[in-house]
Amino acid sequence: MRHVPPLPEQPVAVFDSGVGGLTVLHELLVSLPTEDYVYLGDTARLPYGDRTQEELRTFAVEIADHLLEAGAKLLVVACNSASAAAIDTLERHLEARRLEIDVIGVIRPATQLAVTGSRNGRIGLLATPATVASGAYERAVRAADPHVHLESVACGDLASIIEAGSPFEDSVLELVRGYCAPLRAAQVDEVILGCTHYPLIAPMLQRIVGRGVTLVTSGAGVARSVERALAARDLLNAQADEGDYRFQCTGDVESFRALGTGFLQMPLGDVVHVELAAAVTA
Ligand code: DGL
Question: Which residue out of 63, 196, 218, 259 has the highest number of ligand 1 atoms within 8 Å of its CB and is therefore the one to mutate?
C-alpha cells in the first residue's frame, strides 16, 4: 500500500478516558485556533487510572487507529495514565505502519515546567494509581534533573469523582486534603496535576497546598509541543478563520456533552457515539 503523508487541512486528534482531556483541548483551541480538532473520550472504559499498563496500551493503539481513520495528522494523548503507559508503544505502532504522524503526551511538558520552575528542588505529583505505578514521572524528572526530589501521591478515585460531576462537596474536600498532606509535609514548591481531570478542582487544591506553591498543568506546554511538531512537518493549518472541533465518546453522549461543556468552557455541539472493539471490558 502506498504511504500518503498527512496534509495541513487534516485535524489534530486528542483523546482521554473522559472529559479531563478537554482541559488540554481548551489550551489547544486558544493557542492554535486555526486548527481543526477531533476529540475522543473513552468514557465506556473509564477510569483509566485503575487499568493495567497492558490494558492502557491496547486501548491507546485501538484509539489511535480509530483517530487515524478519522483523518488525524497528529495525536495528542491528553491523559497521563495513557501517556505513562503507551507513548512508546504508540510511537512504535505508527512507525510500523510507516506513518509520519507525531504523538504528543502530557508527561514531558508538565515535568519540564515543574523542574525549571522549582526553586527548592522539591516537586509534588498528584496522579492516578496507574500513572504513579508506571514510574513515568520519576523517570522524566530524573532525566530532566537527577537532583530534584519528586513526592508522588496516587489519588484513588479522584478522577472518577470529577468525571461524575460533583467534586465540590465537603467529603471531597477532606479526601483532597488527605492527598495533599504528604506534599505539604515534603515542602514541595511545585505540584504537577498529573491527571487531566484535576485542573477542574485547581482552586480547592491551591487553597490546600498554599498560595506559595505553583500548580503545574500540561495544557500550555502540550500546545507549544503540538505547534512545533506541526511546524517541523509543514503541517500548520494556514486557514484564516477559526477551525472546527468535534467530539466522539464511547459511552453516554448526553452526559459527555453536559459535563464536557464545563470542562471546555465553550459550546460542545454534537457528540457522536463510537463503538471500539474492546469497549465492553468495563
Ligand atoms: N484523565 C486521565 C489522566 O490524566 C485519566 C483519569 C482516569 O480515567 O482515571 O490520567
Answer: 196
